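--- STAGE predict ---
source: upstream dedup step, 1 unique chain passed
mode: sequence only
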Amino acid sequence: MNLRESAKGRIRCGELGEDRLISALVASLKAHPGVIAGPGDDCAVVDGAGAGELLLLKTDCVVEGVHFLPNEKPTAIGWKAMARTLSDFAAMSGRPRYALITLVAPREREARWTLELYRGLRSVADRFSVAIVGGETSSTAGPVVISISATGTVEKERWVSRAGGEAGDALFVTGKLGGSIRRKHLNFLPRIEESRWLTKHFRLHAMMDLSDGLGADLPRLAQASGVGFEIDERALPRTRGCSIAQAINDGEDYELLFALSPNDAAKLAVQWRKKFPQLPLTRIGHFTASSESAPPPSFHGFLHFS
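--- STAGE serialize ---
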């Protein structure tokens, strides 16, 4: 669909879907010599962090009625808002440093609610040594929105994008999948420690965090790498009580999905069990040479504007 030639802007976002809408939005952005990885990855990667390091930039938001229900505890909402932002640093093996908070809320919202929200934000930030250094507030007649912009760094030899996967690579996921509706999406931990350990000991080819579900994010990882994929659905590590379909499509798992050489797979499994005995690591499939085949019909995940 060509936006310029169609209906003079009457195409609705829902008709395009999230991925096509983003592609249309970034198509006209100009290249810049300092940008190493721009739109399309978990964080933007740019020059400017000092010798041997790269600067990571990320912004994310949570919206009342979309990412959390109105009756959720504000501390849990704050936790999620910060944690999902930091999860994108984990996806690139980065170390988050500073954060800015924008809060948009109705003027009738109780001040105590906002104080509790910030308590949740600070809990995650403190845990990962992130300094909240400012932000903005605004009123609205609509739902609450919390937007977080964060910066961090990663060593030049350790950053991982979505685009380096190769045919034959083994695919792994951390943790268990599915069940976000059972409040799992409000109390997860960004896998920063795990991703830092991975890139210290192994050469990962591609990685991302599972925010929209395996059904949406694995096709994105494969597409960015120019490969296809095959998985064993029966091998998927599922949250207790979840079906295979829920493990694929529930979304908001915030686990790591990554690819590395199959020659490293056995060594990784052994060392992972020693380092993280309480956190499962599961080999779920591999990348294939063919990038033309469509994802299985069972794959859809959570997509905004769909």
